[in-house]
Design goal:
alpha/beta, two-stranded antiparallel sheet, 11 strands
């Protein structure tokens, strides 16, 4: 009997602002995958706003997923997003050890910072833990800032030449990564995504710079990548789909005057993912 494919998504839940689980659940579902959410925290809205409600879910995470163990759930994929503490990384590593099988695809989005700046929650210990999480991954989706942090490479927005990007990817492979895409690379009038495949091949895929930088675009991108991985779509093709989808959503959001902190109106383009 045919079984619908299933992915566990470990991330925070932000009720407003189009990021994290509120992005992943609809996108992954539209692409035909059952999306099973394991929240790391609950936010009324993401931290880019001046005020927000926050409930840390760390102490509940293991008890939460222990019920999945009792149900004997299996997952075709596990996708990890923002993790706010060393303990959360350890819990996620434990989850992967319990639920990942030989054919389970592991997608790690190491959410650590952007534009050369780290998020307030990032500590040296958390950085090391996130680096160790890479060894579980089949796919990693860091932006340029995060790739530099993970590999100890000095950040520069001009770090765009192939040799430098290839050097970073090989360092990520040494940490345990396999397929890697470094996102958000400034290419003048374009935004580049440097793709490194586990067979050693690499390429750059660019989309026209379509508008302002917005909250949640990394979550949109990684959610498409995760669903495509479970659907056995070739990695390079998946990156092109994700980058084009994000670019369209940014352009339309700017046209509609949606504030940057409110994310992108990806909902208007969901039919594109369903049809694919």
């Amino acid at each position: 009997m045919e079984r619908q494919k299933r992915i566990a998504v470990i991330n925070d839940f932000s009720g407003f602002g189009r990021c994290s689980l509120t992005v992943s659940i609809p996108i992954i579902s539209a692409m035909g995958i059952q999306c099973c959410a394991l929240p790391t925290a609950i936010f009324s809205n993401h931290t880019g706003y001046d005020d927000y409600f926050f409930d840390d879910y760390t102490d509940k995470m293991e008890y939460y997923y222990s019920k999945w163990e009792k149900l004997e759930l299996t997952f075709d994929g596990i996708y990890t997003g923002f993790l706010g503490s060393e303990r959360q990384v350890d819990i996620v590593s434990g989850f992967i050890k319990r639920f990942a099988k030989n054919d389970t695809r592991i997608i790690v989005d190491p959410v650590m910072g952007d534009d050369g700046r780290t998020y307030a929650t990032l500590t040296p210990g958390l950085c090391r833990r996130l680096g160790r999480l890479a060894r579980h991954s089949d796919i990693m989706t860091p932006n340029l800032t995060e790739a530099c942090i993970l590999t100890g490479t000095p950040y520069s927005g001009k770090l765009t030449d192939t040799d430098a990007l290839l050097y970073i990817c090989k360092k990520l492979v040494d940490m345990g990564g396999k397929n890697i895409v470094i996102t958000g690379i400034d290419q003048g009038n374009n935004i580049g995504n440097f793709i490194y495949n586990e067979n050693g091949s690499y390429s750059m895929y660019c989309t026209p710079f379509s508008g302002s930088r917005r909250a949640g675009t990394g979550d949109v991108f990684a959610s498409v990548i995760a669903a495509d991985a479970i659907n056995d779509i070739p990695f390079e093709e998946s990156v092109k789909t994700a980058a084009s989808f994000v670019a369209k959503a940014i352009k339309k959001s700017d046209e509609m005057g949606i504030p940057a902190q409110d994310g992108v109106c990806f909902e208007l383009f969901m039919n594109d993912l369903i049809q694919q």
